[in-house]
TrEMBL record:
SUPFAM superfamilies: Immunoglobulin. InterPro entries: Ig-like_dom, Ig-like_dom_sf, Ig-like_fold, Ig_sub, Ig_V-set, VSIG4. This is VSIG4 protein. The gene is Vsig4_1. Pfam families: Ig_3, V-set.
Length: 196
């Protein structure tokens, strides 16, 4: 089976996640990859997603710009990576490779994969409580980490309680760290996690 493309029949991806549509072959002497193209068919219309030729990779569908790519330096691997999946990305994707042989004849092979994009059930973030009443010597380093589970993306905000009542905003990272603790760092800290 010279220059056969191998792929898979179906790939399931999660909304906002990323997936790879496998398309590989064993490079063979005397055959040069002329063009590679990925097409998508949905609602009985076919469009070209990406085309690779001597002048490079071209993404022809604007809705896929900055979201699709094919490995650059691995001969025989022309799998398509789709990132930040949208619901309308579901459809039938065909990988087509055309090789030119030394006697200038062309060989064309293609393989089709069905993509199904599913939504994960949305869940509110829930935070695992850290230990209360942490006592650390002055001059030491320490950190507080906010861990939340739930539907991504999750954003974090750290605050410090103040006597005035209005908490002081500190950071948007999940982890709050101190290199050298001062007595003035004593206090009550809390974290807020949010998603859509």
């Amino acid at each position: 089976a010279l220059l056969d493309l191998s792929g898979v029949h179906q790939v399931e991806g999660t909304w906002k996640g990323s997936i790879t549509l496998p398309c590989t072959y064993v490079p063979s002497e005397g055959f040069t990859e002329q063009t590679l193209s990925w097409h998508v068919e949905r609602d009985s219309t076919t469009s070209t997603v990406l085309r690779r030729d001597d002048s490079g990779d071209h993404i022809l569908l604007s809705k896929f710009r900055d979201r699709v790519s094919v490995p650059k330096h691995s001969p025989g691997n022309v799998s398509l990576l789709i990132e930040n999946l949208e619901m309308p990305d579901s459809g039938h994707y065909t990988c087509q490779v055309i090789w030119r042989s030394t006697n200038n004849s062309l060989i064309i092979r293609e393989v089709t994969t069905t993509v199904k994009v599913v939504k994960v059930a949305a869940t509110k973030p829930s935070i695992r409580a850290g230990e209360l009443g942490l006592t650390v010597p002055a001059g030491a380093s320490t950190s507080l980490t906010c861990e939340a589970s739930g539907s991504p993306p999750i954003s974090y905000r750290w605050f410090r309680s103040t006597l005035q009542g209005e908490p002081q905003f500190l950071s948007r990272e999940a982890k709050l760290a101190w290199d050298r603790l001062q007595p003035s760092d004593s206090g009550t800290y809390f974290c807020e996690a949010a998603n859509k």
